[in-house]
Amino acid sequence: MQVNLLALGGGTTDTLSEESRRVLLQAQQIVGASRLLEQLPEGCTTNRTAATKPEQILQALQAVPCEQAAVVYSGDTGFYSGCRNLVPMLEAQGIAYTVYPGISSVQLLAAALHRPWQDWVLVSAHGVQCNAVAAVMKGRPVFFLTGGRLGVPQLCSQLVKAGLGHLTVTVGENLSYPDQRITMGTAQEMEEKQFSPLSVLLTEAIPQCPQRAPGWPDDWFVRGKVPMTKQFVRAAILSLLGPKPEETVWDVGAGTGSVSVELAAAVQGGSVYAVECEETALSLIGQNRTKFRVWNLHTVAGRAPQVLTDLPTPDAVFVGGSKGAMEPILQQALTKNPNVRLCISCIALETLQTVLNFCQTYHLKPQVTQLAVNQTQPIGTVHLMMAQNPIYLVAIHCDD
To answer: Strands 248-252, 316-319: parallel, antiparallel or unpaired by DSSP?
Structure first.
């Protein structure tokens, strides 16, 4: 049996390639979604089986042996298509197959807008979890396939909640169908509208946060009278904590948010939760969040450990301030994730001792680093080395 995996393109047979049309007309059995089977070209076999899951498709193919069979998909076989899941199954069964591409929805929208699409970020929200905020933070236009629980309003709602309600977006409905419609507006406007299930979303590019190594200059940040973790200490914290692109990170006692901002830039596909109880500090965190465009940074107003209970499970936690609640804060982090990575800054020796006692109680292996940074400061015609306050950083990787 020869199986041909065919992309039908858009919603009408007008977008079907001539090669795919020829193969379809030769097929003795056709398998695919009911919607696609109903709109096949005239002259195709009536031996059709509705199936969408790869296991069901393979079962249908094997139940009706024939020389030529076809499996049909919408759009393009190489663009978030179920084709990729069926191919290894066919190979495992030793079934010969050929893949035929089609016109995808991203091509149809780009053509309707008279725009190239090679610089767009392509994301699927069709039946899967999708972080729209993380996608747009790449600094390029983002094309979203929608479907299931994540339609256009839901994706735009994510953007609005992150402070991106002003972002310009375009919705393409029923592309290639006679009732095709293109709608442009802001994410906030589209959040309130209803669209066809066959819709795609394009968000325009937003400016990125700085792309550079950790340890951003202190004078980049909006500062007040709230203490701020200095540049070289921040660089060491990120080095010890080791944040990864898709992770969830807590910054407890976030102060001005300088560490939170750098963490958010490091985990653009994830989220950072800046926990702070001082109103003045919360305002500074918000200002720095906006200045550096780290829309994946979430401020959490309140005192730890109480406000930590409802936060998502962290992969890593930095504790910059504890208000005397160091032990319960660390306990909450361990309760949420026994394999969490921790980094704690200690200015006072008593705080360091508290952390070391905690490690001993829970059989953790701390790595203690002391930083004593000196920088030049001009005094008249000469430069003197001026010392910053020494600080201890305690790194604990609980999965070691």
So the answer is: parallel
pLDDT at 400: 65
Q: Where are the domains of the chain?
A: 2-103, 106-203, 218-397
Closest CA to 271 of 301, 249, 242, 300: 249
Q: Is the peptide bond before 305 cis (omega within 30 degrees of 0)?
A: yes
Please provide the CATH number assigned to the domain covering 218-397: 3.40.50.150
From the list 308, 229, 325, the residue with the least C-alpha distance to 317 is 308
The residues pairing with 376 across neighbouring beta strands, listed in sequence order, are 385
Domain 2-103, what fold? Cobalt-precorrin-4 Transmethylase; domain 1 (3.40.1010)
Q: How many CB atoms lie within 10 A of CB 308?
A: 23
Residues contacting 189, CB < 8 A, separation 6+:
none
Per-residue model confidence (pLDDT) at position 184:
97
The overall longest dimension of the chain from CA atoms, in Å, is 92
Q: Are 358 and 334 in contact (CB under 8 A)?
A: no
Among the four given CATH numbers 2.60.120.20, 3.30.1360.180, 3.30.950.10, 3.40.50.720, the one describing domain 106-203:
3.30.950.10
State the DSSP code for 138.
Answer: T
Q: What is the pTM of this model?
A: 0.87
Burial of 223 (0-12, 13-18, 19+ CB in 10 A): middle
Find out whether 165 and 187 touch, Cβ atoms under 8 Å. yes
Cα-based distances in Å from 344 to 169, 319, 350, 353: 41, 5, 13, 12
pLDDT digits (tens, 9 = 90+) for 84-141: 999 999 999 999 999 999 999 999 999 999 999 999 999 999 878 899 999 999 899 9
